[in-house]
Amino acid sequence: MSKNNHYAIINAISDLQARGFILDFSIIRSKLFCAQEQCYFELDEFDVLEVYCFHPGSRIRDLTHVYAIESLIRPLKGILLISETNAYGKYQWPARTRSEEQYYS
Q: Which residue of 6, 46, 53, 75 lies most exposed, with the fewest beta carbons within 10 A?
């Protein structure tokens, strides 16, 4: 994971874009979707390289996560932005970073 300390979401996104993470990803029906390439990825077809968490609101439940994503099957790198305001706590996305996989294995 990156050691960059970003104080704002835009700084994290700008830094990732400058390092080649230029595509836009979203989650559709439990799959990762790349808007520019119009393709879907299963959980075992991509890796989360970096994660940044921001609390832009005054409540701890207001979370925004910025994920640096790399495809394992195609030469694609991009960003997934998840904003979650949830009364029940943190949004649980099933993907893990490489360092987390090493820790949990």
A: 75
Sign of the C-alpha dihedral computed for residues 9, 14, 20 and 24 taken in this order:
positive
- 65, 12 in Cβ contact below 8 A? no
Which residues are CB-neighbours of 77 under 8 A, at least 6 positions away? 20, 21, 22, 23, 68, 69, 70, 71
User: Whole-model pTM?
Assistant: 0.74
Q: Is 91 exposed, middle or buried (0-12, 13-18, 19+ CB in 10 A)?
A: middle
Q: CA torsion 46→47→50→54, rounded to 10°?
A: 60
